[in-house]
Amino acid sequence: MTDHVALLRGINVGGANNLKMADLRGLAERLRWSDVRTVLASGNLLFRSDASSGFLAEQLTDALESEFGLNLSVIVLTSARFLEALAACPF
């Protein structure tokens, strides 16, 4: 299984798009993702899956819409790709 990072845009910011992290974890577990963890109330999600990042992003986007009525931008990266992007950040 591959480690992934999911980044949800605009969760729990300024009272909009409220989503409890326990609900987000539960959703990811219902999608059959493994070792699911959230980071504070940020909407960032760490998990393991064998599926492609693109498929996982679509799956999470659709599930957030159907279960919580949230239409959000979702990015899913492998942990390796996330670390590459972080290392390349000039800030």
In brief, what are we looking at here?
The protein is α+β, with helices and mostly antiparallel strands. The protein contains 3 helices and 4 strands; from the N terminus they run βαββαβα. The protein has helices at 21-30, 53-68, 79-88, and strands spanning 2-8, 34-39, 44-49, 74-78.
Quaternary structure type: single chain
Can you give the mean pLDDT?
A: 92
What do we call the CATH homologous superfamily? SP0830-like domains
Strand content: 25-35%
CATH fold node name: Alpha-Beta Plaits
**Radius of gyration of CA atoms, rounded to a whole number:** 13 Å
Lateral arrangement of strands in the main beta sheet: 2-3-1-4
Please tag this protein with its features.
globular; 91 residues; single chain; Alpha-Beta Plaits; alpha+beta
Annotate the secondary structure layout.
Blueprint: E1 2-8, H1 21-30, E2 34-39, E3 44-49, H2 53-68, E4 74-78, H3 79-88
Antiparallel strand pairs: 1-3, 1-4, 2-3
Structure commentary:
The chain is of the alpha+beta class. The protein has one domain: SP0830-like domains (Alpha-Beta Plaits). Helix content is 40%, strand content 26%. It has 3 helices and 4 strands, in the order E-H-E-E-H-E-H. It has a 4-stranded antiparallel beta sheet. A hairpin with a 4-residue loop joins strand 2 and strand 3. 20% of the residues are buried.
